[in-house]
Amino acid sequence: MSRVSQAEAWRRVRNILEMSDLVLEVIDARDPMETRNRKLEDLLGKLGKPLVIVINKADLIPLEVLKEWKEYLEREYPTVFISAKNRLGTRKLIVSIKKYAPRLPVRVSVVGYPNVGKSTIINYLKGRHVAETSPIPGWTIGEQIVKAKQWLIVIDTPGVIPADEVKDDALLIIKGAIDPSKLDDPIPPAIKLIMRIKSFNPKAFMDRYGVDSEDPLELLELIGRRRGLLMKGGNVNIRGAAIAVIRDWILGKLIYYYRPPTRSG
Ligand SMILES: Nc1nc2c(ncn2[C@@H]2O[C@H](COP(=O)(O)OP(=O)(O)OP(=O)(O)O)[C@@H](O)[C@H]2O)c(=O)[nH]1
Ligand SMILES: [Mg+2]
Asked: I want to staple 79 with a disulfide (CB 3.0 to 4.6 A). Which of 53, 171, 190, 221 is the partner?
């Protein structure tokens, strides 16, 4: 499924958490609920480690929605939103680390689902490329300890998936947490993803591909044809189209967002 087994990834993350003074949990701004890792948060609670939630990929969604998520999540944990890739909001991240660190110098681990941008954040904090990043989920296999500043040691970790989710391909695709080319059949998860994207952003497919349909399978066919994904005989390679859609989602080329639940809801 990924380059490292999830059992091994969890084992490594647990070891890192034990030696951390502060933990950054990274989530994806496009789907904060689905990329928030409750299993990790439970573990941190048990270990008694302070946590800051980092909403990453803030460049992909509107500022006013980011502010709503920050306010919502801050009922539970201190929260910042940043775009590690575009280096936006990252000064606030430094301020938060200093504020919530029990002492300086501080050891901060960066954890979360695969592909949320943990290694990109490590590189930002260091100020140069020291951790490998990739649009392929499950890229980081081992921990990497980086002295980012005189007072700051940051630790990159492999993405972790709760055990009860590892077999749910459709859910993991929505979370952007697995590599679609590894799936036996990417078509059913792609269909679920299409339906989720459409439910929040009806224009997403017209904007991205210039085609649309109410029927997700037909939409895959239209996208495949548009992209020239044809098989011998001229039929559309639906599997290829499914992988293309999932990749675009992972790459942030398909976007949706939603607002946090209201206080009464
Ligand atoms: N749009 C956008 N993309 C980002 C941002 N930060 C990271 N990415 C992209 O997200 C993908 C994953 O980034 P990584 O830093 O490798 O993610 P990771 O959490 O370390 O992933 P694993 O090692 O697989 O667990 C890459 O294609 C990054 O370029 C961001 O702020 N905005
Ligand atoms: Mg990584």
From this structure: 53
| Cα–Cα–Cα angle for 243, 244, 247, rounded to 5 degrees | 85
What CATH number is associated with residue 135? 3.40.50.300
Q: What is the pTM of this model?
A: 0.95
Ligand 1 neighbourhood includes 93 CB (under 6 angstroms): no
Specify whether 30 is located in the same domain as 155: yes
Question: In Å, how far are 99, 185, 191, 264 from 88, measured between CA atoms?
Answer: 19, 37, 33, 32
Q: What is the pLDDT of residues 164-189, one digit of tens each?
A: 999 999 999 999 999 998 899 999 99
For residues 35 and 112, the answer to whether their CB atoms sit within 8 Å is yes
* 59 CB near ligand 1 (under 6 Å): yes
Number of domains in the chain: 2
| Domain boundaries, position 220 | 179-250
pLDDT tens per residue across span 119-140: 999 999 999 999 999 999 999 9
Distance CA 118, CA 244 (A): 24
> Ligand 1: which of 54, 120, 156, 160 to mutate, most ligand atoms within 8 Å of CB?
120
Alpha-carbon gap, residue 139 to 130, rounded angstroms: 14
**What pLDDT band is residue 142 in, cutting at 50, 70 and 90?**
confident
3-state helix, strand, coil in the chain (%, to 5): 45, 15, 40
Span 52-64, average pLDDT: 97
By the 8 A CB rule, do 54 and 43 touch? no
Strand partners for 144: 156
40 Cα to the center of ligand 2, angstroms = 16
